[in-house]
Amino acid sequence: MKAVGYQQSLPAIDQRALQDITLPVPQVSAQDLLVEVQAVSVNPVDTKIRACVSADEGQ
Hints:
Strand content: 5-15%
Number of domains: 1
Strand order of the largest sheet: 1-2
Number of strands: 2
Order of helices and strands: EEH
Helix content: 10-25%
Number of helices: 1
Shape: elongated
């Protein structure tokens, strides 16, 4: 599945700030629900929070 993530905290205007990545589709069990996301947006507050937080090692 396609996802968007980051390796290090960069300014939002930096083209490397958010990266397109590919992840395996999660395995669901009988009590889970797999949802297909068709649209996303970025809240300005999220960019301010992300500017102060680095990704965990290996993330």
